[in-house]
Amino acid sequence: MLTSDFDFSLPQELIAQSPATHRDHSRLLVLNRATDQISHRRFCDLPEFLRPGDVLVLNDSKVIPARLRGKNTRTGGAFEILLLEEITKNDWWVMMRPAKRARPGTIIQILHKTQCASPFEATVQEVNSEGHRRLHFSGSGDILTALDELGEVPLPPYIQRIEEQPTDRERYQTIYAQAPGSVAAPTAGLHFTAELLQKIQARGVSVCCLTLHVGLGTFAPVKARRLADHLMHQERFLISPETARTIATAKERGGRIVAAGTTTLRALESARGAGAGRTALFIYPPFHFNMVDCLVTNFHLPRSTLLMLAAAFAAPDQTGGRERILRAYGEAIANRYRFFSYGDAMLLL
Question: What would the CATH number be for the domain defined by 3-63+169-348?
Fold first, then answer.
């Protein structure tokens, strides 16, 4: 299967630049895989599609303010730093701009958002094959605990901001986020409110969490011509024994496992039980799903691994999911749905 098979044309004005006024008032396109029927609802209608005995699984990873600003201590040149993954305390893999000027040995003064100097400096340690830099931070304490003061919300580039808006810190974060570590939001979870989760539980649906720290590779377009040649990024996950038991019990009793987001689905299909690890699972048609029965997800970028996963889920064990998901995307475009991180949602039953 070719990467070009997952291309589609999207009008620029349908790329959501801000979230819905109320989280659960976003639109919800419902695709019934058994009947191939599409219906148009609101996200607050989600409980109607869930049954007693089902389990809704959420990703409770918390987005960190991962975008930093700095300047070369020798030349004064400006750098933009995007934290990707913590290796150990004050030791991180990062993306940097301009990358060519960030050679090993370069020392960078980290700036406050006010552009004044912070107590932290960063030294470029090495460069990997992807062009990412390994930075060691020195100064006062742990850079991770200082990010709320120093960092900016790492909004994706298609959300065009000169600077972050006050609402971004709240709205580019799920209400149940607990474990810091993501550099991009698990966007399907952005639609949930406390009231909606209460309604879901009132229907006899169990709600539980796992953690998968979302990396930027999640949203990156596939550059290989053939899907089989794509090297999938790795992401860290943790599934607690309690969550694993809840899922196993529900499956034994005939309940459905409803994954809120592609990140949740990847963790579940990778682990199939309790545990911690890293997943590089690349899901594309045809794919057999062992754990997840229903998927809540947003509308994804062309040629992205997320779109390919949604296509695989649209028709498990078959290649026809590509046509089915692109047909649903075509209907969403015709009905002026809002796309990507701050956009509307889709439910695949």
Answer: 3.40.1780.10
